[in-house]
Amino acid sequence: MYLKRITLLLFATISLVGCNNGDKGDKILVTDMVGDEVLVPKNPKKVACVSRTTYDLLVAYGLGDKIDGAYKGTLSNKWVPFIYPESSKHYVYEYDNSPEVFLSRGVDLVFAPEQYIAKNLRDHGVNAVCISLYGNPSFDNYVTFFSEFVTKVWDSEEIKIKAKKWENKVTDAINDIKQRLKDVNNNQKVVFYVRGDKNNGVCYTDTIGAFTEYAYRTLGFDFVGSHVDTNRPSKETVLSYNPDIFVFGGIYQNINQDLFNQDAEFSKLGAETYSIPIGLTAFEQLSAMTPVFFYDQAKKIYPSYFTDININQMIKETIAEYFMTVISDEQVGFMMSGLGPNGEPLV
């Protein structure tokens, strides 16, 4: 149900970390990530996770049975059915679906990846909010936005406890890493992130507003994506920043690393290269694994400061805690190397 902004403002009585919330019977007034105020069903029973930053945390908070489906890029990851077998029951959505698709499936609420998609759905009678992959102007104030959003839409005390615990873990990890690295002059290290959710090559990256840009900047590195105005800068542009470190993520990370190693111009840089683990989702996407992602990258780049941190154990414990799945040491190794649960390529 979509109401004009002026009507919604009459019900906005509570403000909490980016959400204006007001109960109205079985509805709740919320503000989504792009600032649109929307009246949505409270405790929805059938949601669509088209935004790829939503599926993981909903499952982690015990709301998997409320998910009707998810974006095809999320569900195509081979780790998803291994870690969360119930995913086989979920409908596969495209990025921009017609309103009729959601209406025919009786979806209560859609988590859309972009403002125009959410607005179009609302205009056609579909409850939808935008949970963007990008913050505006940066992601600094959005790390816990969706987690807090979930606890407003669903009023379960159990969900609130799980959400708060995850939020605290994220905050504690960031603060701990900053403290450990406070005497390291790591601003001199230039990092280039190779985004591998699509097969777009070595120069495909994230820019200002992305979670990755926030993450590496927060850790104290000079993130190349902070300086470019496109997520597909030319190779000449990337080379001009002379990165000290290339980090490879996503399902195409091994393909991209091969391309990087075979390229004479990139090889001349003498840069260090690191992988980003991938599980139910790529670790560099906001997820249950976000605290592990921070520690993993910090330890890879500055190992001597994190000798007490056992990343493999953290991965096993986190997956067991949130998804009730036990993985072996060998499978953790596959995950760390961007491979599937049986050691197979992800693409």
Describe the structure.
The chain is 37% helix and 15% strand. It is built from 15 helices and 13 strands. The protein has helices at 5-9, 55-60, 72-75, 79-83, 99-104, 115-123, 145-153, 157-180, 211-218, 235-240, 253-262, 264-267, 290-301, 311-323, 329-336, and strands at 14-16, 19-24, 27-31, 37-41, 47-49, 67-71, 91-93, 109-112, 128-130, 190-194, 222-223, 245-248, 272-275. Helix 2 (55-60) links the parallel strand 5 and strand 6. The two termini are 40 Å apart. Mean pLDDT is 92; it is low at 1-23.
Describe the SSE topology.
Elements: H1 5-9, E1 14-16, E2 19-24, E3 27-31, E4 37-41, E5 47-49, H2 55-60, E6 67-71, H3 72-75, H4 79-83, E7 91-93, H5 99-104, E8 109-112, H6 115-123, E9 128-130, H7 145-153, H8 157-180, E10 190-194, H9 211-218, E11 222-223, H10 235-240, E12 245-248, H11 253-262, H12 264-267, E13 272-275, H13 290-301, H14 311-323, H15 329-336
Parallel strand pairs: 5-6, 5-8, 6-7, 8-9, 10-11, 10-12, 12-13
Antiparallel strand pairs: 1-2, 2-3, 3-4
